[in-house]
Structure formats: C-alpha cells, structure tokens
Amino acid sequence: MPLRIPDKLPAIDILKKENIFVMDSSRAHTQDIRPLHIVILNLMPLKITTETDLIRLLSNTPLQMDITFMKLKSHTPKNTPIEHMMAFYKDFDVLKDKKFDGMIITGAPVENYAFEEVTYWEEVTKIFAWARNHVTSTLYICWAAQAGLYYHYGIPKYPLPKKMFGVFKQHTLMPLLPIFRGFDDFFYMPQSRHTEIRKQDIEATSGLQLIAESAESGVSIVMARGGREFFITGHLEYSPDTLDKEYRRDIGKRDDVEMPVNYYADDNPDNPPLVRWRAHANLLFSNWINYYVYQETPYDINKIE
C-alpha cells in the first residue's frame, strides 16, 4: 500500500530494505486519491522502532493512507532525539480541530503507576474523549488498552504476581467478526506487562464485547461501539526481536526478569525467536483498516461524528 508518511522519516529506508512499499509526502501529492487519514499517538519510549513496526503493518492493503504522528505537550520523551520529535510529530493542540479515519494509541512504560498518577493522564484522557467524535475507529494497544477501558468504562487493572512476558496462544470468541476474517482457530500474540484486566469485569460492563482471550494470558481483545474502539492487551505489532531486546536489557538489572515463554526455539535464549504472530498481525491490521475504517468512514472526513 502507498503510505503517505513524512519525508525523511527513518522508517522509510528501513522498510524499503524489506521490500515494503512506502511513499513519502512529496510523491503522494501527485496522486489524485482521497487517502485515509490515520493518526498515531506514540507513547512508547523507542519512537522510531514503534513507528517502523506500525507502518510495516499498515502497509499491507492497497489503500493509500496519510500517516500523522501525534505527541503529548505534557511529556518529553527521554529516548528519542528532540530533533526527531520536532520534525515528525505534532502536538494534540495542533491536531484537535482535525478529523481522522483511524487512530492508533500505543502502549507506554507507566503501567505500575495508578492511572491518575501518570504525569500526562489529564492530556491523554482529553485525547481519549476527543477520539470518540473525531475518529472513525481507534486501536488502543497494551497500556493504552487498559487506560482506555478504565477511562471510558471504569474497568480496573490488577497487578500480576509476575510479569506476563512471552508469546501466548489466543482464541477468537466471535470468529465471524470482520476483524477476524481469514484467521485460524487460534493465533499468537506477544505480551509484555505487569498488570491485567479481568474477564469478569468486561462481561459485567454494558457496551463491551470480549472477542479474543487466552487460557494463559487472559483478556486479549475487547471491542466496543460496534468496532469504533478495539482494546488489544498485547503487542501484535512487535518485531521478531523486540522481546529478546527487552529480556537482555533487563536481565541482571531487575529481580523479576524471567525468560519470555513460548518465544525462543526450544526455550533456549541462545536460539533465535520463533515468529508465530506475524501473519495474524498483518491480517488484523488489514481487516481493521478495510472493515472498520475504510468501509465505515464517510468520504467527507468532516462528517465523522
């Protein structure tokens, strides 16, 4: 898919080496096509890595998309050069009068804090509320999924006795939904979190549908408002080596670090990871774009409500 992304974004060169077609803004403006407008609120510490992971998945349909990266005014990232943020990201205040066909809100390394203790909680909840009538469909990922469910529906999170870390088998509970078109009976999803949301809270809350779960890792995907909101507890967007990098970063520095389960060949960290989630990750993002964004959004983007 021809993705319209900012000129000179580092992801362009990375993805071209993978034979993934992306189009910078200069070339895209020569095409007379109404692109889908997708905004990404990237709360992950390694911004460039997350940008590349998400663009890789969004590139898997024939639809043209115009990608905008949003940042918080109330938070300055420590692990991404300020020059990168200034060149490729826009504050919410700059974007709040615009409407978007789709939105992705990523995880964030703040899950051990109570939601209200997060320094940018006030701003991020303004964005959650704004998305309700400025975006056709929104994907909330990992911490954002927990935060969105808490803000919109009052769903609490609970600390886990140990980190949920590895790749876990997931089962679709509503396999006929368009989001699961082409899925097998089960799929795999990377998880990396210290807290959880619980099935009984989801099932007791009007307006929420639990649509995928795991016997090992619990709640997987929750849908609301007929697909205008999806809450995904894990990281289908992760690259093959992301959990490995996280494991090697933390081992010896924290006392709660265990090897990611179901991840390395023969459960041996000297072996490479077994990548078992990539096909379904591509399917899920393609289905979301096709059935919940493209086929639902009005041609006149200003009519989103």
From TrEMBL:
Pathway: Amino-acid biosynthesis; L-methionine biosynthesis via de novo pathway; O-acetyl-L-homoserine from L-homoserine: step 1/1. GO terms for cellular component: cytoplasm. Its EC number is 2.3.1.31. It is found in: Cytoplasm. It is an enzyme of class 2 (transferase). Its main location: cytoplasm. The active site is at residues 142, 235, 237. One of its GO terms (molecular function) is homoserine O-acetyltransferase activity. It catalyses: L-homoserine + acetyl-CoA = O-acetyl-L-homoserine + CoA. The record marks 192 as: Important for substrate specificity. GO terms for biological process: L-methionine biosynthetic process from homoserine via O-succinyl-L-homoserine and cystathionine. Belongs to the MetA family. This is Homoserine O-acetyltransferase.
